[in-house]
Design goal:
Layout: H1 3-9, H2 11-24, H3 36-40, H4 43-54, H5 62-79, H6 83-100, H7 102-107, H8 110-163, H9 166-195, H10 203-233, E1 242-245, H11 246-263, E2 267-271, E3 278-281, H12 283-299, E4 305-314, E5 317-324, H13 331-334, H14 359-369, E6 373-379, E7 383-391
Parallel strand pairs: 2-4
Antiparallel strand pairs: 1-3, 4-5, 5-7, 6-7
Helix pairs in contact: 1-4, 2-6, 4-5, 5-8, 6-8, 8-9, 8-10, 9-10, 10-14, 11-12, 12-14
The protein binds adenosine-5'-diphosphate (ADP).
């Protein structure tokens, strides 16, 4: 009985069934944000290498198996998987392989079946071990990079706090405790790591590394947002206007946030206008504004739809609106929504873990820098619409207008 050929014939079925099982597993959350190709990764090649192992006539392709497993671990680390999710993926692949090959296996003699299952299990154990090894190494590398980044940003922050007293000192106060703990813990990990030849890839170790990384990334996000605000307020931001294809730029943003909307079953639509095709603006800044507004719309909406549309507003202005059917913003909060660090904490709303209250403050400043304005219409329980109105042609400025009139 040639199980090797049976496995080769069914590679596509196994991959499809496995991806379906991974997406249906509610404990592999990270996969829901990936494309089919992103999840599939090198599984077909691994299955082919496994088929060679099963073949009695060909030399087993252990090199491919090892190399692809290492690549898989690195990729999963970069995609943000935690160790538990990887373990579940492998549990599912084992299950799917045996389920799909069941018909063929039942036709073999007991000795043939024993040999095939022993080889499949050995190959899978090898893959899991290699994958975890490279996963841990990637995580440790990330930790080391993050620590270096945090040290640098901390230096910049300290310098800024000395220069400006208000928001920065409030922020510095909030940052002190978590920053010290992250730097301390990651230092300890990395020092232990350097003393050991072998990477310690126990689940507890991995969990602790992940916890440090998660808080580190969150903190870095907060620091970077705060620094962005101070750079604006210090007048250190310039514009680089160029002719920009509006529809292309917005579609680019939507592609990035689409998995977030899909994960919450939210419809995401864009209505393009032929009256506005190319505008002269700073594409990076515009992208930042739209990304912020759409991400907020997704974050604060549990069901319904997010709609983007843009059109000509006046002969020399265009407007883009982002509407959601989310929780809405109480009228008393609307006046303060663009203030730095302001977060709506009314009624039963819970503050999201990754909230900084800086996103809209940055959007407000960016829109002003682009010589435009932002308007908000919102009703609690119904939804919100943020509309940004911008000139069709942004003028290049040397001096940031916010410098003279801080908000
Ligand atoms: P963050 O979301 O990080 O807290 P933002 O400055 O982006 O910071 O938003 C400030 C506050 O405005 C948020 O805490 C949230 O309560 C509210 N908010 C922003 N966008 C929306 C939205 N589309 N729907 C409802 N509330 C929103």
């Amino acid at each position: 009985m040639d199980f090797s050929q049976a496995l080769l014939n069914k590679v596509d079925v196994i991959v499809d069934e496995w991806i379906k099982a991974v997406l249906e597993d509610d404990q592999i959350e990270t996969a829901r944000e990936l494309t089919y190709k992103g999840i599939r990764d090198s599984l077909p090649i691994l299955l082919q290498a496994m088929a060679t192992m099963l073949s009695e006539s060909e030399d087993s392709d252990i090199t491919t198996l090892v190399q692809k497993s290492l690549e898989h671990g690195t990729l999963r680390a970069q995609q943000g998987y935690d160790a538990e999710e990887i373990a579940r993926e492998y549990r599912l692949i084992r299950w799917v392989i045996f389920a799909v090959l069941e018909e063929e296996l039942l036709k073999g003699t007991p000795a043939e079946v024993m040999r095939a299952s022993r080889l499949i299990n050995t190959a899978l154990d090898e893959i899991v071990a290699r994958c975890f090894k490279s996963y841990t190494q990637e995580r440790l590398q990330e930790l080391e990079d993050l620590q270096n980044q945090l040290k640098l940003t901390n230096q910049e922050l300290t310098r800024l706090v000395r220069a400006s007293k208000d928001n920065m000192s409030q922020l510095a106060h909030e940052l002190k405790t978590p920053l010290t703990s992250i730097i301390g813990y990651s230092d300890m990990f990395l020092r232990q790591q350097r003393q050991q030849q072998e990477v310690k890839d126990s689940t507890r170790n991995l969990e602790s590394i992940e916890r440090v990384l998660r808080s580190g990334r969150q903190l870095l996000h907060l620091i970077n947002d705060a620094l962005e605000i101070s750079r604006f307020d210090a007048g250190k931001m310039n514009l680089h206007p160029v002719p920009t294809d509006v529809c292309g730029l917005i579609n680019g943003v939507l592609e990035v946030v689409e998995p977030l909307a899909r994960a919450k079953n939210l419809e995401l639509t864009l209505r393009c206008s032929s009256a506005v095709e190319t505008v002269v603006t700073d594409p990076l800044r515009l992208q930042q504004v739209i990304t912020n507004l759409v991400s907020n719309a997704i974050r604060y909406t549990e069901k319904g739809a997010i709609q983007l549309q843009y059109a000509l507003h006046s002969p020399d202005q265009w407007g883009i609106s982002v509407s959601d059917t989310g929780i809405g913003i109480p009228s008393e909060a609307q006046a303060r929504i663009f203030d730095p660090y302001y977060q709506v904490a009314a009624g039963d709303r819970t503050l999201l873990a990754d909230s900084t209250g800086l996103g809209l403050a940055i959007v407000f400043r960016l829109v002003k820098l682009m010589q435009g304005k932002i308007e908000l219409v919102s009703e609690v329980g119904v939804g919100s619409t943020f509309t940004v109105i911008l000139p069709l042609e942004v003028k290049e400025i040397e001096e940031n207008p916010l410098k003279q009139s801080a908000i």
